[in-house]
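Exercise 7. Given the components listed, write out the predicted structure of the assembled complex. Treat all entries as one system.
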Amino acid sequence: MTDTLQLWLLFVAVGVGTFLIRLSFIQLHGSAEALINRSKHILMLLPPAILAALCIPAIIFSRPLTDYQVEYFQLAAALVAILIARFSRSVFWPVVGGMLCLWLLRFISS
Amino acid sequence: MNNCRKQFWLGVRDLLPLVSGVLPFGLIVGATGVSLGMTPEMVVGMSALFFAGSAQLAAYSLIQDNAPFIIILATAVVINLRFAIYSAAFAPLLGPLPKRYRFTLAYMLSDQTYGLCSMPEQMAKTTPERIGYLAGVTLALYVTWLVSVILGIALGAGIPPHWSLEFTIPLAFLAMLVTTITSRLLFMVAVISGSCAVLFQLLPFNTGFIVAVVAGVSGGLLLPGLLKTKGATHD
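Answer.
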Protein backbone atom coordinates (compact mmCIF):
# COMPACT_ATOMS: atom_id res chain seq x y z
CA MET A 1 0.00 0.00 0.00
CA THR A 2 2.76 2.52 -0.73
CA ASP A 3 1.88 3.28 -4.35
CA THR A 4 0.66 6.89 -4.54
CA LEU A 5 -2.20 6.25 -6.96
CA GLN A 6 -3.45 3.36 -4.87
CA LEU A 7 -3.41 5.57 -1.76
CA TRP A 8 -5.46 8.26 -3.53
CA LEU A 9 -7.95 5.60 -4.62
CA LEU A 10 -8.15 4.46 -1.01
CA PHE A 11 -8.77 8.00 0.24
CA VAL A 12 -11.55 8.55 -2.30
CA ALA A 13 -13.11 5.16 -1.46
CA VAL A 14 -13.09 5.91 2.28
CA GLY A 15 -14.43 9.41 1.59
CA VAL A 16 -17.33 8.03 -0.43
CA GLY A 17 -18.02 5.28 2.12
CA THR A 18 -18.01 7.75 5.01
CA PHE A 19 -20.27 10.13 3.09
CA LEU A 20 -22.76 7.31 2.47
CA ILE A 21 -22.81 6.48 6.20
CA ARG A 22 -23.37 10.13 7.07
CA LEU A 23 -26.11 10.41 4.46
CA SER A 24 -27.75 7.05 5.28
CA PHE A 25 -30.63 7.93 7.59
CA ILE A 26 -30.99 11.46 6.24
CA GLN A 27 -31.67 9.99 2.82
CA LEU A 28 -33.94 7.26 4.22
CA HIS A 29 -35.81 9.82 6.29
CA GLY A 30 -39.33 8.66 7.08
CA SER A 31 -38.85 4.98 6.29
CA ALA A 32 -36.17 3.73 8.68
CA GLU A 33 -37.37 4.20 12.25
CA ALA A 34 -37.37 0.46 13.02
CA LEU A 35 -33.87 -0.03 11.61
CA ILE A 36 -32.54 2.87 13.69
CA ASN A 37 -33.89 1.42 16.92
CA ARG A 38 -32.53 -2.04 16.17
CA SER A 39 -28.99 -0.89 15.28
CA LYS A 40 -28.57 1.59 18.15
CA HIS A 41 -27.31 -1.01 20.64
CA ILE A 42 -24.62 -2.38 18.30
CA LEU A 43 -23.51 1.14 17.34
CA MET A 44 -23.03 1.90 21.04
CA LEU A 45 -20.76 -1.14 21.54
CA LEU A 46 -18.60 -0.39 18.49
CA PRO A 47 -16.38 2.49 19.75
CA PRO A 48 -14.72 0.65 22.68
CA ALA A 49 -14.28 -2.52 20.59
CA ILE A 50 -12.67 -0.61 17.72
CA LEU A 51 -10.46 1.63 19.84
CA ALA A 52 -9.16 -1.24 21.99
CA ALA A 53 -8.35 -3.37 18.93
CA LEU A 54 -6.51 -0.42 17.37
CA CYS A 55 -4.33 0.69 20.23
CA ILE A 56 -3.58 -2.27 22.51
CA PRO A 57 -1.33 -4.33 20.18
CA ALA A 58 0.49 -1.19 19.00
CA ILE A 59 1.21 -0.19 22.61
CA ILE A 60 2.41 -3.56 23.90
CA PHE A 61 4.61 -4.55 20.95
CA SER A 62 7.06 -2.69 18.73
CA ARG A 63 5.97 -1.81 15.18
CA PRO A 64 6.30 -3.16 12.53
CA LEU A 65 5.67 -6.46 14.25
CA THR A 66 8.41 -9.00 13.56
CA ASP A 67 8.44 -11.01 16.78
CA TYR A 68 6.58 -10.58 20.07
CA GLN A 69 9.01 -8.02 21.50
CA VAL A 70 7.30 -6.27 24.43
CA GLU A 71 7.99 -2.52 24.63
CA TYR A 72 8.12 -1.63 28.33
CA PHE A 73 8.69 2.09 27.78
CA GLN A 74 5.58 2.26 25.62
CA LEU A 75 3.59 0.47 28.34
CA ALA A 76 4.74 3.04 30.89
CA ALA A 77 3.81 5.88 28.50
CA ALA A 78 0.38 4.30 28.03
CA LEU A 79 -0.18 4.16 31.80
CA VAL A 80 0.60 7.87 32.06
CA ALA A 81 -1.79 8.59 29.16
CA ILE A 82 -4.58 6.58 30.85
CA LEU A 83 -4.12 8.47 34.12
CA ILE A 84 -4.25 11.85 32.37
CA ALA A 85 -7.23 10.82 30.22
CA ARG A 86 -9.21 9.92 33.33
CA PHE A 87 -8.93 13.52 34.55
CA SER A 88 -8.73 15.67 31.44
CA ARG A 89 -11.30 13.93 29.17
CA SER A 90 -9.42 15.30 26.17
CA VAL A 91 -7.22 13.58 23.60
CA PHE A 92 -4.42 16.13 23.48
CA TRP A 93 -3.03 16.11 27.03
CA PRO A 94 -2.83 12.29 27.41
CA VAL A 95 -0.87 12.16 24.13
CA VAL A 96 1.49 14.91 25.28
CA GLY A 97 2.00 13.27 28.70
CA GLY A 98 2.57 9.82 27.19
CA MET A 99 5.09 11.09 24.66
CA LEU A 100 7.00 13.07 27.30
CA CYS A 101 7.15 9.91 29.43
CA LEU A 102 8.43 7.86 26.48
CA TRP A 103 11.11 10.42 25.59
CA LEU A 104 12.17 10.77 29.22
CA LEU A 105 12.57 6.99 29.71
CA ARG A 106 14.56 6.67 26.47
CA PHE A 107 16.75 9.62 27.43
CA ILE A 108 17.49 8.14 30.87
CA SER A 109 18.26 4.66 29.53
CA SER A 110 20.46 5.78 26.63
CA MET B 1 -33.67 34.48 5.46
CA ASN B 2 -32.01 37.23 7.45
CA ASN B 3 -32.73 35.34 10.63
CA CYS B 4 -31.23 32.20 9.08
CA ARG B 5 -28.01 34.11 8.38
CA LYS B 6 -27.91 35.36 11.95
CA GLN B 7 -28.19 31.74 13.14
CA PHE B 8 -25.33 30.77 10.80
CA TRP B 9 -22.96 33.22 12.49
CA LEU B 10 -24.24 32.16 15.89
CA GLY B 11 -23.23 28.60 14.95
CA VAL B 12 -19.76 29.78 13.90
CA ARG B 13 -19.40 31.64 17.19
CA ASP B 14 -20.51 28.63 19.27
CA LEU B 15 -17.92 26.44 17.59
CA LEU B 16 -15.01 28.71 18.58
CA PRO B 17 -14.60 27.33 22.14
CA LEU B 18 -14.36 23.83 20.64
CA VAL B 19 -11.35 24.86 18.53
CA SER B 20 -9.16 24.18 21.56
CA GLY B 21 -10.15 20.51 21.25
CA VAL B 22 -10.06 20.26 17.45
CA LEU B 23 -6.76 22.07 16.86
CA PRO B 24 -4.47 19.68 18.82
CA PHE B 25 -6.11 16.63 17.23
CA GLY B 26 -5.63 18.18 13.77
CA LEU B 27 -2.00 18.91 14.65
CA ILE B 28 -1.46 15.23 15.54
CA VAL B 29 -3.16 14.05 12.34
CA GLY B 30 -1.10 16.42 10.18
CA ALA B 31 2.23 15.81 11.91
CA THR B 32 1.99 11.99 11.99
CA GLY B 33 0.88 11.96 8.34
CA VAL B 34 4.12 13.53 7.14
CA SER B 35 6.15 11.49 9.64
CA LEU B 36 4.92 8.34 7.84
CA GLY B 37 6.41 9.68 4.61
CA MET B 38 3.28 10.99 2.89
CA THR B 39 3.50 14.24 0.92
CA PRO B 40 1.72 17.30 2.38
CA GLU B 41 -0.75 17.29 -0.55
CA MET B 42 -1.71 13.71 0.25
CA VAL B 43 -2.27 14.43 3.94
CA VAL B 44 -4.44 17.49 3.15
CA GLY B 45 -6.37 15.60 0.46
CA MET B 46 -6.89 12.68 2.81
CA SER B 47 -8.15 15.01 5.56
CA ALA B 48 -10.53 16.79 3.20
CA LEU B 49 -11.94 13.49 1.89
CA PHE B 50 -12.18 11.65 5.23
CA PHE B 51 -13.10 14.59 7.48
CA ALA B 52 -12.83 12.03 10.29
CA GLY B 53 -9.68 12.16 12.43
CA SER B 54 -9.88 8.77 14.14
CA ALA B 55 -10.48 6.93 10.85
CA GLN B 56 -7.52 8.78 9.38
CA LEU B 57 -5.22 7.76 12.27
CA ALA B 58 -6.37 4.14 11.91
CA ALA B 59 -5.69 4.27 8.17
CA TYR B 60 -2.19 5.60 8.93
CA SER B 61 -1.29 2.68 11.14
CA LEU B 62 -2.64 0.16 8.62
CA ILE B 63 -0.83 1.85 5.72
CA GLN B 64 2.32 1.64 7.86
CA ASP B 65 1.69 -2.11 8.34
CA ASN B 66 1.25 -2.54 4.56
CA ALA B 67 -2.30 -3.81 5.03
CA PRO B 68 -4.28 -4.55 1.85
CA PHE B 69 -6.63 -1.94 0.35
CA ILE B 70 -9.86 -3.67 1.30
CA ILE B 71 -8.87 -4.07 4.98
CA ILE B 72 -7.98 -0.38 5.33
CA LEU B 73 -11.25 0.58 3.65
CA ALA B 74 -13.28 -1.78 5.86
CA THR B 75 -11.55 -0.56 9.03
CA ALA B 76 -12.13 3.12 8.22
CA VAL B 77 -15.77 2.48 7.34
CA VAL B 78 -16.38 0.49 10.56
CA ILE B 79 -14.85 3.31 12.63
CA ASN B 80 -17.11 5.82 10.88
CA LEU B 81 -20.27 3.78 11.51
CA ARG B 82 -20.96 6.07 14.47
CA PHE B 83 -21.90 8.77 11.98
CA ALA B 84 -25.02 6.71 11.26
CA ILE B 85 -26.28 7.73 14.72
CA TYR B 86 -25.85 11.41 13.86
CA SER B 87 -27.44 10.84 10.49
CA ALA B 88 -30.47 9.37 12.25
CA ALA B 89 -30.56 12.29 14.69
CA PHE B 90 -30.58 14.92 11.94
CA ALA B 91 -32.74 13.01 9.44
CA PRO B 92 -35.95 14.95 10.26
CA LEU B 93 -34.09 18.26 9.86
CA LEU B 94 -31.94 17.60 6.78
CA GLY B 95 -34.01 14.94 4.99
CA PRO B 96 -36.50 17.36 3.38
CA LEU B 97 -33.80 19.81 2.11
CA PRO B 98 -32.92 20.15 -1.60
CA LYS B 99 -30.22 17.76 -2.74
CA ARG B 100 -27.24 20.13 -2.85
CA TYR B 101 -27.78 21.35 0.74
CA ARG B 102 -28.68 17.88 2.00
CA PHE B 103 -25.52 16.29 0.52
CA THR B 104 -23.17 19.10 1.54
CA LEU B 105 -24.34 19.21 5.14
CA ALA B 106 -24.44 15.40 5.40
CA TYR B 107 -20.85 15.23 4.11
CA MET B 108 -19.68 17.44 6.95
CA LEU B 109 -21.61 15.85 9.84
CA SER B 110 -19.34 15.30 12.83
CA ASP B 111 -19.17 14.65 16.56
CA GLN B 112 -19.02 18.38 17.28
CA THR B 113 -22.01 19.19 15.07
CA TYR B 114 -24.01 16.54 16.85
CA GLY B 115 -22.96 17.84 20.25
CA LEU B 116 -23.82 21.49 19.58
CA CYS B 117 -26.94 21.07 17.44
CA SER B 118 -28.75 18.53 19.61
CA MET B 119 -28.75 20.75 22.72
CA PRO B 120 -32.22 21.54 24.12
CA GLU B 121 -32.01 25.27 23.31
CA GLN B 122 -31.40 24.41 19.64
CA MET B 123 -34.33 22.01 19.52
CA ALA B 124 -36.61 24.90 20.56
CA LYS B 125 -35.78 26.93 17.40
CA THR B 126 -37.69 26.91 14.09
CA THR B 127 -36.51 24.55 11.33
CA PRO B 128 -34.86 27.24 9.10
CA GLU B 129 -33.10 28.65 12.14
CA ARG B 130 -31.79 25.23 13.12
CA ILE B 131 -30.51 24.58 9.58
CA GLY B 132 -28.74 27.96 9.54
CA TYR B 133 -27.12 27.20 12.89
CA LEU B 134 -26.08 23.70 11.81
CA ALA B 135 -24.56 25.06 8.58
CA GLY B 136 -22.55 27.60 10.59
CA VAL B 137 -21.19 24.97 12.99
CA THR B 138 -20.30 22.43 10.28
CA LEU B 139 -18.62 24.87 7.89
CA ALA B 140 -16.60 26.51 10.67
CA LEU B 141 -15.50 23.08 11.86
CA TYR B 142 -14.48 21.94 8.39
CA VAL B 143 -12.28 25.01 7.92
CA THR B 144 -10.83 24.68 11.44
CA TRP B 145 -10.00 21.03 10.81
CA LEU B 146 -8.15 21.64 7.56
CA VAL B 147 -6.21 24.60 8.98
CA SER B 148 -5.17 22.51 12.02
CA VAL B 149 -3.99 19.65 9.80
CA ILE B 150 -1.95 22.05 7.63
CA LEU B 151 -0.35 23.54 10.76
CA GLY B 152 0.41 20.00 11.92
CA ILE B 153 2.09 19.20 8.60
CA ALA B 154 4.28 22.29 8.88
CA LEU B 155 5.20 21.31 12.43
CA GLY B 156 5.69 17.60 11.79
CA ALA B 157 8.04 18.12 8.87
CA GLY B 158 10.62 19.51 11.30
CA ILE B 159 10.49 16.63 13.79
CA PRO B 160 13.22 13.93 13.41
CA PRO B 161 12.07 10.28 12.99
CA HIS B 162 13.83 8.95 16.13
CA TRP B 163 11.29 10.89 18.23
CA SER B 164 8.80 8.10 17.29
CA LEU B 165 6.03 10.58 16.57
CA GLU B 166 3.95 7.70 15.16
CA PHE B 167 3.46 6.47 18.74
CA THR B 168 1.02 9.38 19.18
CA ILE B 169 -1.47 7.31 17.13
CA PRO B 170 -2.02 4.47 19.65
CA LEU B 171 -1.82 7.01 22.50
CA ALA B 172 -4.59 9.10 20.93
CA PHE B 173 -6.75 5.98 20.49
CA LEU B 174 -6.05 4.99 24.09
CA ALA B 175 -7.18 8.41 25.34
CA MET B 176 -10.39 8.11 23.27
CA LEU B 177 -10.88 4.60 24.61
CA VAL B 178 -10.69 5.80 28.21
CA THR B 179 -13.35 8.46 27.56
CA THR B 180 -15.72 6.03 25.76
CA ILE B 181 -15.71 3.47 28.59
CA THR B 182 -18.66 4.65 30.66
CA SER B 183 -19.94 1.32 31.99
CA ARG B 184 -18.67 -2.08 33.10
CA LEU B 185 -20.14 -3.68 29.97
CA LEU B 186 -18.21 -1.32 27.69
CA PHE B 187 -15.05 -2.06 29.70
CA MET B 188 -15.56 -5.81 29.11
CA VAL B 189 -16.08 -5.13 25.39
CA ALA B 190 -12.74 -3.30 25.31
CA VAL B 191 -10.97 -6.10 27.23
CA ILE B 192 -12.30 -8.81 24.89
CA SER B 193 -11.51 -6.84 21.77
CA GLY B 194 -8.05 -5.80 22.99
CA SER B 195 -7.05 -9.35 23.97
CA CYS B 196 -8.28 -10.75 20.65
CA ALA B 197 -6.37 -8.04 18.77
CA VAL B 198 -3.17 -9.14 20.56
CA LEU B 199 -3.86 -12.85 20.02
CA PHE B 200 -4.72 -12.52 16.33
CA GLN B 201 -2.31 -9.78 15.26
CA LEU B 202 -0.30 -12.16 13.09
CA LEU B 203 -3.34 -13.31 11.08
CA PRO B 204 -2.75 -12.67 7.37
CA PHE B 205 -3.87 -9.37 5.75
CA ASN B 206 -4.44 -7.67 9.14
CA THR B 207 -7.78 -9.45 9.49
CA GLY B 208 -7.05 -9.72 13.23
CA PHE B 209 -8.52 -6.24 13.72
CA ILE B 210 -11.89 -7.18 12.22
CA VAL B 211 -11.93 -10.45 14.21
CA ALA B 212 -11.25 -8.51 17.43
CA VAL B 213 -14.01 -5.94 16.79
CA VAL B 214 -16.55 -8.68 15.99
CA ALA B 215 -15.52 -10.60 19.13
CA GLY B 216 -15.81 -7.47 21.28
CA VAL B 217 -19.25 -6.49 19.97
CA SER B 218 -20.53 -10.10 20.20
CA GLY B 219 -19.26 -10.23 23.77
CA GLY B 220 -21.12 -7.02 24.51
CA LEU B 221 -24.32 -8.44 23.06
CA LEU B 222 -24.06 -11.87 24.75
CA LEU B 223 -22.52 -11.06 28.15
CA PRO B 224 -25.55 -9.34 29.78
CA GLY B 225 -27.71 -12.39 28.94
CA LEU B 226 -25.09 -14.88 30.20
CA LEU B 227 -24.57 -13.01 33.47
CA LYS B 228 -28.32 -12.73 34.02
CA THR B 229 -28.92 -16.51 33.65
CA LYS B 230 -25.94 -17.17 35.92
CA GLY B 231 -27.37 -14.80 38.53
CA ALA B 232 -30.80 -16.46 38.22
CA THR B 233 -29.42 -19.95 38.97
CA HIS B 234 -27.74 -18.63 42.11
CA ASP B 235 -31.02 -17.33 43.53
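Discussion: Chain B has two domains: 2-163, 181-234. The CA atoms of residues 227 and 233 of chain B lie 10 Å apart.
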